[in-house]
Structure to design on (497 residues):
């Protein structure tokens, strides 16, 4: 399969496991077990390979966090202090598109980033009206739906960067022109502060707000043409919930048009706003403070004054928020296992933590699941206390990582079984950015199948926020279909204007 993907006509970047001994410097992909590999896809690239050159080390033409440069003058101005030479062309590029990234999961090709060769990604989707879905604020993409199909754009990026927001606006106009499209319905995230939502508010037409995690679930369901209710396990970093808190470790039941929250990871109070994402040690400190444990022993690389400041801010409720985020729990454990610096790319701590894990480590940590009137609550106290005990006993970090991943597999499967007992549902959807973690995803798929569940996960669309726009379009289409194209309230997921 890997050979077929590499030599096929799409020529994506394929994530492949490193082999020993390594011939390339570790600095190319530090603390990673995989490298992104692609074959030349244009004649010009073939000309770069003389007979004695077997490979090139390449990276995208952009400053980290900004869109790729696609115009000659802009590239020279932006990258002049980074690159020594520029190969320019007299044929202008009209639309910037990153390389697509794929990997193999469960013996299937899975799209990580939609780009060249894949975008615009067309997927069957019945919609009674012309729908524009605006996606998430991070890993942004846009989607249009009409005439029985949806078209998903290439990866755009983080809309908080002004250049990326401009690219977002240009992509919408490009789709309107390319598909002769005039949106009647605009689907957007429920978060009123999201820049994609702010864009929606300024547009004409009927608006449908879609809860972030329901969009993840619905995108996978629509991709798989699922027509019946399912259990959704949605693990990611951030998404505004219907209770006004930040969700991210969610167990949902429902369909394309609506959902019920059946359970979630136990809430934790985090401090620091966006800094809690950029500095994983903050997550660890907040979890330990919540357990009544002094974090100094377990976070030796962090300035004690910073830890004291976080403690005072928690006591005074300064820049604090409640969250059930699974992504932040992974950040917490990654920090406890040594990642106590500021991240330099999205989810770096969790990515490096996954790469500490080993294939054949058995066992998992004890966990607690409470059945409350608001659904199942997956607790973190027992898990973290046993991890701290292992750290004090100098258990290797690779074993701790493996056992933590195994714990999340067992605890998740346990929650899903309890939901099946209550609902009778046997179809399970796995989605959200945390499931970019291949170790976690493959083992959870296997565990749930052993328990006689039918398991579905994103393949055509990214499981991360790059797939949100398609999920929003699927939700909006289902709502319109159920209500004969007349808007009405249809459950927790949606808001209409």
């Amino acid at each position: 399969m890997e050979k077929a993907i590499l030599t096929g006509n799409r020529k994506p970047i394929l994530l492949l496991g490193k082999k020993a001994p390594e011939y390339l410097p570790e600095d190319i992909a530090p603390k990673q077990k995989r490298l992104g590999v692609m074959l030349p896809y244009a004649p010009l690239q073939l000309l770069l390979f003389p007979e004695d050159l077997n490979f090139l080390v390449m990276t995208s033409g952009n400053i980290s966090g900004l869109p790729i440069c696609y115009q000659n003058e802009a590239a020279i101005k932006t990258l002049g202090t980074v690159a020594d030479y520029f190969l320019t062309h007299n044929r202008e590029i009209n639309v910037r598109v990153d390389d697509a990234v794929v990997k193999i999961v469960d013996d299937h090709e899975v799209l990580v980033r939609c780009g060249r060769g894949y975008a615009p990604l067309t997927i069957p989707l019945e919609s009674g009206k012309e729908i524009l879905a605006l996606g998430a604020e991070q890993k942004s993409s846009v989607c249009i739906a009409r005439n029985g199909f949806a078209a998903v754009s290439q990866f755009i990026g983080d809309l908080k960067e002004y250049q990326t927001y401009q690219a977002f606006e240009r992509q919408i106009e490009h789709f309107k022109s390319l598909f002769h499209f005039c949106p009647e319905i605009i689907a957007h995230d429920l978060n009123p502060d999201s820049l994609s939502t702010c864009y929606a508010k300024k547009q004409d037409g009927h608006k449908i707000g879609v809860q972030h995690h329901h969009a993840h679930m619905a995108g996978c369901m629509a991709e798989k043409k699922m027509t019946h209710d399912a259990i959704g396990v949605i693990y990611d970093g951030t998404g505004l919930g219907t209770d006004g808190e930040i969700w991210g470790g969610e167990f949902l039941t429902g369909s394309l048009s609506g959902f019920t929250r059946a359970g979630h990871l136990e809430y934790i109070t985090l401090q620091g706003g966006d800094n809690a994402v950029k500095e994983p040690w903050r997550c660890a400190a907040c979890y330990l403070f919540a357990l009544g444990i002094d974090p100094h022993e377990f976070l030796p690389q962090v300035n004690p004054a910073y830890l004291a400041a976080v403690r005072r801010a928690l006591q005074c409720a300064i820049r604090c928020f409640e969250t059930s985020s699974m992504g932040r729990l992974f950040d917490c454990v990654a920090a406890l296992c040594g990642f106590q610096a500021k991240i330099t790319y999205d989810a770096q701590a969790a990515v490096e933590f996954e790469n500490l894990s080993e294939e054949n480590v058995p066992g998992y940590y004890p966990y607690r699941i409470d059945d409350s009137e608001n659904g199942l609550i997956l607790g973190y106290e027992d898990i973290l206390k046993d991890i701290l005990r292992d750290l004090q006993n100098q258990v290797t970090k690779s074993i701790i990582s493996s056992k933590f991943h195994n714990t999340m597999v067992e605890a998740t499967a346990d929650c899903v079984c309890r939901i099946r007992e209550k609902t009778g549902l046997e179809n399970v959807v796995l989605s959200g950015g945390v499931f970019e973690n291949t170790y976690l995803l493959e083992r959870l798929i296997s565990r749930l199948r052993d328990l006689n569940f039918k398991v579905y996960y994103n393949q055509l669309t990214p499981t991360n926020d790059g797939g949100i726009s398609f999920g929003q379009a699927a939700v909006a289409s289902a709502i319109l279909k159920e209500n004969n194209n007349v808007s009405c309230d249809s459950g927790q997921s949606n808001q209409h204007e």
